[in-house]
Amino acid sequence: MLKEIKCDALVIGAGPAGLTAAIYLKRANRDVLVVRGKEKSALEIAHEIKNYPGIKNIKGSILLAEMTEHAVALGVKILDDDVLAITADMNPKMASTKTAFITTNAIVIATGKGTRKPVLHDEEKFIGYGVSYCATCDGPLYKERPIAIVGTDTETAEDVLLLHQMGSKVTWLLKDKKIAEIEAKTDLIQEILAKKIPIIERVKVMRILGTDRVTGVEYDVSGGKKENLNVDCVFVMSSVPTAMLLKRSGLAVSEMNAIIVNRNQQTNLEGIFACGDVCGNGLQVSIAVGEGAVAGMNAAKYLLEIEE
Ligand SMILES: Cc1cc2nc3c(=O)[nH]c(=O)nc-3n(C[C@H](O)[C@H](O)[C@H](O)COP(=O)(O)OP(=O)(O)OC[C@H]3O[C@@H](n4cnc5c(N)ncnc54)[C@H](O)[C@@H]3O)c2cc1C
Fold it and tell me: Is the pTM of this model over 0.85?
């Protein structure tokens, strides 16, 4: 069941850019929700930051924790989830995640550069044509149909059971691992085994089969042997290909897939701003913070304008 959330401004991304935008919006007295995706902020993995003014040397994860605490202390709400789509050509605007449906008047995109690599060959080509990242959203479309799910964590195990419960003929593909080796809750694994849901272990490279739509998955098993599984949909339980999903929402991007903005961090879509590494400018914490401040201030100004 998807939650329904309403807020004045939605910030997508909880790195330095998104958190700064959220702090500015909150201090302008706006109800702000930050959605923090599965993929780590680049700052969290930066070992040492030695060029952030005022702090001679700090571990990236500590600086990020301080920024997060600052935003939360002001009253910014944070939802851990991945945004899958935004609908920008209407007011209010909408965004959907795996667990929520969000209605808002302004959006700040701060999703970073992204280092995600596709889990299956040709995965991004088939998004919406048999590749899905959300069992709750798309599972009901595949009742009594063969589907596959790829992933090795507790969230995947939950979704295996959810898809089975929805009536799909689900097969669980485990990349490189055996069921006994994965880090998912034991009681869920026991339930899946008891229900005799098919599991294929130690799968190597996976390729999507099909021309216009997914018709199957071809995968390698040890020894380089190839096998096929006929399915109508593959659910991929990893971080999501944010750049591709945002581009589909109508945002103008450069050849390098950076979101194009003006000096106010305004994108080509009204009421939608972008900041930080996602705009491809400099890729530094201080730049992300500066752009986040500009985006937050202008999003707050936009909210005032549409209320007049
Ligand atoms: C190893 C390393 C060392 C670095 N060293 C330095 C340095 O010394 N000095 C310096 O200034 N900079 C350094 N950087 C760069 C700096 O960390 C980045 O420029 C900065 O973190 C960019 O901030 P951002 O907010 O734009 O993006 P990020 O910090 O990458 O944050 C992106 C956020 O977006 C979220 N997200 C992505 N997709 C979605 C989605 N679909 N839905 C919801 N949320 C989503 C992620 O979960 C994350 O919270 C380093 C980076 C790395 C990787």
Answer: yes
